[in-house]
Amino acid sequence: MTTTLPPAPSPAAPTPGRAPAPTSPVGGARPGPRTFTTEVLAVLGRRLRRLRRGPGRAIGVVLNPLVSMVLLGYLFRDAITLPAGGSYVEYVFAGGAVQVGLACVGPTAVSMAMDLQGGIVDRFRSLPISRSAVPLGHTAADLLTALAALVVTTGAGLLLGWRSHTGLLPTLGGFALIAAFTYVMLWLGVLLATTLRSIETISVVAPFIVIVLPFLSSAFLSPQSMPGAIRPIAEWNPVSAVIAACRDLWGNPATAGPGYVGEHPLVVVAVTLSTLFAVCVTVSLRRFRKP
């Protein structure tokens, strides 16, 4: 008795006029939103576990704004006089809050550079996961750390005498602006890591961002009191625009100049942050995909 086997099914021919299903860079179908979210959460959990085992970087994010507020806002509160008057503690709080975002640049860059050098990124590249899940997980975990640092900074500011005078919604709007600024700074850290790829070089560049940028802005001193050559830099510094917008939202003393930045800080913040964010994300993901 002879058994006739059915012929093996031939692969379905592509439908005319229809493009083939997109594939991920590592092969296979492109993951859906649920799979992509799972991948990001996996990287996020790994990053949080590393921060728990080595909390030194997270402590540094908290200490930077606290030291600035205590040294300047408390010790020098009677020695520094604002041109338009007002409480110097309330004036300096916005500068300390912005420092939370600036202090995150270095830890994020170092962490990404360590992964790039340690081979873990090559292992991720060999897996069927989205390439963008790795930097997204890193930045999401570091954003949670930064928000916790912002809570500690706000508590210290309240103890020193900072108050918001504009109601609940504008107050929350100011903190949302700080959170958005912080997230952009996290992607700046990813850009530094994917561009420099050297922990030693990042360790030299990151302190420049944390220390120099605030002092070349309106974070601690009025731009009108600075030398003539430094004043335009401080007035057009994007950090100054973020600080000025927060002071307006919180009703705190401000030293905005008569120029466009001083009169329209929210417009300047929207343009500068969106542009910087687009550049950092685009260039970082492009460099991250390259071995």
Summarize the topology:
Layout (H helix, E strand, L loop, with lengths): L32 H21 L2 H20 L12 H16 L1 H14 L1 H6 L7 H28 L7 H29 L2 H17 L15 H6 L1 H13 L9 H4 L1 H24 L3
Helix pairs in contact: 1-6, 2-3, 2-6, 3-6, 3-7, 3-8, 3-10, 4-7, 4-8, 6-7, 7-10, 7-12, 10-12
Sum this structure up briefly.
With 291 residues, this protein is an all-alpha fold.
Structural description of this entry:
By secondary structure, the chain is an all-alpha fold. The protein has one domain. It has 12 helices and no strands. It has helices at 33-53, 56-75, 88-103, 105-118, 120-125, 133-160, 168-196, 199-215, 231-236, 238-250, 260-263, 265-288. The protein starts with 32 loop residues before the first helix and ends with a helix. The chain crosses the membrane at residues 56-76, 88-113, 134-160, 172-194, 201-221, 266-285. Residues 56-291 form the ABC transmembrane type-2 domain. It comes from Streptomyces cinerochromogenes. This is Transport permease protein. Keywords: Antibiotic resistance, Cell membrane, Membrane, Transmembrane, Transmembrane helix, Transport.
Identify the overall geometry: elongated
Question: How many separate domains make up the residues?
Answer: 1
Question: How far apart, in Å, are the first and last alpha carbons?
Answer: 59 Å
Strand content bin: under 5%
Task: List low-confidence stretches.
Answer: 19-29
Radius of gyration: 24 Å
Count of separate DSSP helical elements: 12
